[in-house]
Design a protein that fits this description.
Elements: H1 9-19, H2 39-45, E1 54-56, E2 74-79, E3 90-94, E4 104-106, E5 116-117, E6 121-122, E7 126-127, E8 130-131, E9 143-151, H3 152-155, E10 166-167, H4 169-179, E11 188-192, H5 195-200, E12 220-221, H6 226-232, E13 236-239, H7 257-266, E14 269-272, H8 277-286, E15 290-295, E16 305-307, E17 311-313
Parallel strand pairs: 9-11, 10-12, 11-13, 13-14
Antiparallel strand pairs: 1-17, 2-3, 4-14, 4-16, 5-6, 7-8, 9-15, 15-17
């Protein structure tokens, strides 16, 4: 699979307008594409539970710093069991959810474009007090629906995609055909690149690329998939990286196009840094790539994201 094709700022602007959902669910909407996931679709998704087997799709919270984890989770004990007379234990932890190390759900206030966030809300609504609009608390009831895994490396007979490989619409549709599923309205789409398998194999991580966002090359979705994601009316997009391939092909300075158009134009909540390895094995063992998926963010008023432990249930 080749790297992403170049994307100019004018083409990004046209994509933004093509995929924009502003006003679709009213001028005050703060849930975006989660509106596609109706109570009836959630009810139907529960029929996918046949065994009662659950699979976690989260990485452990990383407490050790490394070049790709400059803000590790801070974990301190406040009450220990090895003290004389101890009657219990307690602790304290703090998390910076964004980045490459924490499985997290992005809120719709996370990304700005031309001074605005989702549904035309001014970026100035996010201050030192947090997000006055589009915060993570708008997902307080959780996300429960039909999860679909498109396992790109498995269907290509590979352990993982190499850093920088770009997934196209053709790749996604081929994965659908091989898995005998079709991604549709209200679905919670997970795309596996095999990043965790690659990391656990001991393969070296490439160094960060120069630029405003010093990320290493990562496999992920090419910007050309944005109209496809918009037309399929998915409720959520998740992956084992940022969903964007890096380098993304975008020549502007605003950021990554899947994040930018997905979050700001579409109102698409993104699940970043999921661990999809156990889920991949569970799907392959059963020969089915759909399941009930439950994602429950913490209710942090005015927050820009939340760490999550997504659970796939078979």
């Amino acid at each position: 699979m080749p790297p992403a094709r170049p994307l100019s700022p004018p083409t990004l602007a046209a994509l933004f307008d093509q995929c924009r959902n502003w006003g679709r669910w009213g001028p005050a909407d703060q849930r975006g594409t989660l509106n596609y996931l109706t109570p009836e679709q959630t009810r139907r998704a529960t029929a996918l539970v046949r065994e009662g087997v659950t699979v976690s799709c989260a990485l452990p919270l990383a407490t050790t710093p490394d070049p790709h984890n400059p803000f590790p989770v801070l974990h301190h004990m406040l009450g220990d069991g090895d003290l004389e007379g101890a009657t219990g234990s307690s602790d304290w932890f703090a998390v910076q959810p964004h980045g490459r190390s924490v499985t997290h759900l992005d809120a719709l206030c996370h990304i700005f474009y031309r001074g605005q966030m989702y549904n035309g809300v001014p970026a100035s609504q996010v201050t030192v007090r947090g997000a006055a609009a589009n915060g993570i608390e708008n997902v307080r009831t959780g996300i429960v629906g039909r999860g679909v895994l498109l396992d790109l490396p498995r269907w290509q007979g590979r352990g993982w995609l190499e850093p920088g490989e770009a997934i196209t619409v053709e790749n996604l549709e081929r994965a659908e055909q091989q898995a005998r599923v079709q991604v549709g309205e209200g679905d919670l789409l997970l795309v596996r690149t095999g990043q965790q398998a690659r990391a656990r194999s001991g393969a070296p991580s490439p160094p960060p690329l120069p630029g405003r966002f010093p990320l290493p090359p990562l496999a992920g979705l090419e910007w050309t998939t944005l109209p496809w994601l918009h037309e399929r009316r998915i409720a959520l997009l998740g992956g084992d990286t940022f969903s964007d391939c890096v380098p993304s092909g975008y020549t502007g300075a605003e950021g990554l196009p899947i994040h930018l158009v997905g979050i700001v134009a579409m109102g698409l909540h993104l699940l970043d840094n999921a661990d999809l390895e156990a889920l991949s094995e569970a799907c392959a063992a059963r020969g089915r790539w759909e399941f009930l998926l439950v994602i429950s963010p913490l209710i942090l008023e005015r927050g820009t994201a939340s760490p999550v432990n997504p659970l796939a249930i078979f």
